[in-house]
Design goal:
single chain; 379 residues; alpha+beta; 6-stranded antiparallel barrel; 4-stranded antiparallel β-sheet; 48% helix; MFP
Length: 379
């Protein structure tokens, strides 16, 4: 037992020394701060700026309205011209529709007259045919006796048979009237020296041609109205965009800096305010030259916030080296002079954004560890 006591003592001392040296010699940053990109919000048009009062550090959501720019001098000449052309085109459509309604009314009137004419024309022919058949029936007995006498005379003397003129004429009248009745029922009116249709029907046919032409004009006019209305709508949108522009937040973040005062006149592209983009979780740290030369982009690391025990996984995203002031021009937290004298490292820490206990912790400090330490299992 006395033999093992010195050995155990040596092992414990060696272990303690290993822990102390391992903790002190592991790669660790001199300082580290939670950082984020700064987004500059600019005006999309020229005009008078209207910004609601908002305290610095206030949270803003993506798409939230930040300000309004009104331009009372926007050019509306093209819009007014399109409105006038559209009004003229709509008036033309109304005129064509009115003409069509009048033509349809006339066409209906002529159709009614044609129908009435057809009815009475058929009745007239039927009446004539009725009396013609009656006249033929009266003449036919006399015709039979005349034919008998003519036959006897022909047997005694060689003479030409006598023609019965009235019966033949009656039969011709009946045949012609029957033909005229069939034609009238088919819509064709026979007669000497005039057309096969009444003037009302002829006028109705001309009106049908005029109605077809007006319907074609109406289709063309309505298409023109549709085209002009689409152009007017686009121009109205353009004028609205130029005359009153809504400035919205491009990201979820916090109100960082005011660059223009409320009520001033701004030009297109002028910066209005700055926002910190809280959707991007960065940690900027400085390390010694020895630690820096052992790192490469993509290496894993851990980050610990000051006064918090939770450890966050991190990944090296950029190695900017010494004097890296330029890379901080678009970041919220600028480096100190001592930071610039060391070697700059930027890390991505996505768990900072998803931690419910942290609300965009830009500016909070901590330390970054690039190697495993002997007491990590206790942490």
């Amino acid at each position: 037992m006395k033999t093992f006591r010195p050995v155990i003592g040596i092992v414990l001392v060696a272990g303690a020394l290993w822990v102390i040296v391992g903790e002190q010699m592991s790669g660790v940053s001199a300082d580290a701060v939670v950082n984020a990109p700064v987004v500059t919000v600019r005006s999309s048009t020229a005009g008078k700026l209207s910004m609601p009062k908002r305290p610095l550090g206030a949270h803003v959501d993506k798409g939230e309205r930040l300000a309004t720019v009104d331009d009372i001098l926007s050019d509306t000449t093209q819009l007014e011209d399109l409105r006038m052309e559209l009004a003229n085109a709509e008036a033309n459509v109304a005129r064509i529709k009115s003409d069509l309604a009048a033509k349809h009314t006339q066409r209906d009137a002529y159709a009614a007259r044609s129908k009435l004419y057809r009815t009475h024309r058929i009745a007239e022919i039927e009446t004539k045919l009725k009396f013609a058949r009656a006249r033929l029936d009266r003449l036919q007995p006399d015709a039979q006796s005349t034919e008998t006498s003519a036959t006897k005379v022909a047997q005694t003397a060689p003479a030409a048979p006598a023609e019965n003129g009235p019966v033949t004429q009656a039969r011709e009248d009946v045949a012609l009237l029957e033909n005229a009745l069939d034609a009238a029922k088919s819509g064709v009116y026979l007669g000497d020296g005039y057309n096969d249709a009444p003037s009302s029907e002829q006028r109705g046919a001309l009106l049908d041609e005029e109605i077809a032409a007006l319907e074609a004009d109406l289709t063309e006019a309505e298409a023109r109205v549709k085209t002009l209305d689409a152009r007017r709508s686009k121009e109205q949108t353009r004028v609205n965009t130029l005359s009153s522009s809504q400035v919205t937040s491009p990201a979820n973040g916090i109100y960082w800096e005011t660059l223009q005062a409320d009520g001033v006149t701004v030009q297109r592209g002028d910066p209005i305010m700055s926002l910190v983009d809280c959707d991007v979780s960065l940690v900027t740290a400085s390390v010694s030259e020895g630690v820096y030369n052992t790192l490469k982009v993509g290496d894993s690391a851990t980050f610990k916030l000051a006064s918090r025990d939770k450890i966050y996984d991190a990944t090296i995203a950029r190695l900017a080296g010494s004097g890296a002031a330029r890379v901080y021009q678009t970041l919220a937290i600028a480096p100190s002079q001592k930071h610039l004298e060391r070697y700059d490292v930027t890390l991505l820490v996505p768990d900072l954004k998803s931690d419910p206990d942290l609300d965009c912790p830009v500016g909070r400090t901590g330390r970054v560890f690039f190697e495993h330490r002997p007491l990590d299992f206790l942490r």
